[in-house]
Amino acid sequence: MSSLKTHLESLRDIGDDKKVVDVTSNQAE
């Protein structure tokens, strides 16, 4: 169960990174 929780947290972190990149790209345009 703890490994699954870690996996979900990793996916969430990746999603947060992607949102940051998307916002930066939008500002650049």
Uncertain stretches: none
Using only C-alpha atoms, the radius of gyration works out to 13 Å
Helix content: over 70%
Helix and strand run: H
User: What fraction of residues sit in β-strands?
Assistant: under 5%
**Shape assignment:** rod-shaped
Number of helices: 1
**Mean pLDDT score:** 77
β-strand number: 0
What's the SSE blueprint?
Blueprint: H1 2-28
Which tags fit this structure?
single chain; 29 residues; mainly alpha; 93% helix; rod-shaped
Q: Summed up, what is this model?
A:
The chain has 29 residues and is an all-alpha fold.
Q: Could you explain the architecture of this structure?
A:
By secondary structure, this protein is mostly helical. 93% of the residues lie in helices and 0% in strands. The protein is built from one helix and no strands. The mean pLDDT is 77. Keywords: Plasmid.
